[in-house]
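Protocol step 4 of 6: structure prediction from sequence.
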Amino acid sequence: MATAALDRNAPPLAPIDVSRPELYAQDRWQEPFRTLRAQAPIQYVPDSPFGPYWSVSTHKPIVKIEALPKIFSSGWEYGGIAITGIVDRLMENEVRMPMFIAMDPPHHTAQRRTIAPSFGPSEVAAMKAEIQQRTGEVLDSLPVGEAFDWVDRVSIELTTGMLAKLFDFPWEQRHKLTYWSDMGGDVEQMTTPEGHARRNAALTEMGEAFGALWQEKVANPGKDLISVMLQSDAMNHMSQQEFMGNLILLIVGGNDTTRNSMSGFVWGLSQFPEERAKLEADPALIPNAVQELIRWQTPLAHMRRTVLEDTEVDGVPMKKGDKVVMWYISANRDEAVFKDADAIRVDRENARRHLSFGYGIHRCVGARVAEMQLCTLLEEMGKRRLRATPVGEPERVPACFVHGYKKMMVELSHYG
């Protein structure tokens, strides 16, 4: 297959494998994607640790692919939603986890309709007071003028607390949700038998814990997500593997997206102090700034699809069975859509056009909750006139799926 390039008379650009974990661990993914967007927005990569794939790096073709689920499948049986698919099929003793984001209609439609009402506008509004209280308590527990790890003390604490409430998970064990989320979303674990075994062990532990919780909810259902699943015709007959898959989806989606946006906001605004000052001076900018920060951070770097029939995208032919990786992290820096895209602009007019939550039928079901949590954090910091300033470079996640931070030392100060 030929490499696609914008200039049809120019020689093809040599394949650039942007799945390499060091690009993200060292925060140097920007230039390879800039080159791809300019010269080969749809490029075939014949060799990577995850097998061959089509790399799609600009906004327009990603939206087109997302809008055609009958041609570009999310189905777990074809490899699912992450680049790992081919490696996953090569591993022995694997844990197979169907989940509704990795399903096509009609199964996807039925299961999503079960979950979606739990994240509707009125349900999210009802969560606001409790989120405000917990966020305030966490912020008030932090030292001022003394270095601490923002990821651990704030981002993880707030997101795991939210997940524990949603699932009615034992509060004293809530930090296990972080570990299971990390393992569930770490695609690099899938490249070696040893990593695969660690991931399976973690997910087996998770399955046992939530299996016991499922049985408790059978006897005593409530309003939590597990009870919602139990009371749904579309989900109450799930196999253990499908139950685990949907849990991983909700945990990774609820944890990593919000957690890394909470960390990304601190790091990002520290790189653009004029924008930080603008936001601190005008709290009315917070809702739009949240969209901009989620765009700039892009907490999940990609989603993957499988071609179900020979087709073409923007003149590039793709074959049935091909793997297509949509790089949200690059589309959110597409200068054709976002002017001065590498910069944070808290008042950017079209910040909501970001693809961090996906597009179309698979757009993140919990997007409102993530936005509300991040808005609340910014609001509560503003009330306290608190500013978090990083102390040195953060330690980043070495992965091409979850785009985030493992550790970020910061100091708090008061402004104004």
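Step 5 (inspection) to follow. The chain has a mean pLDDT of 86.
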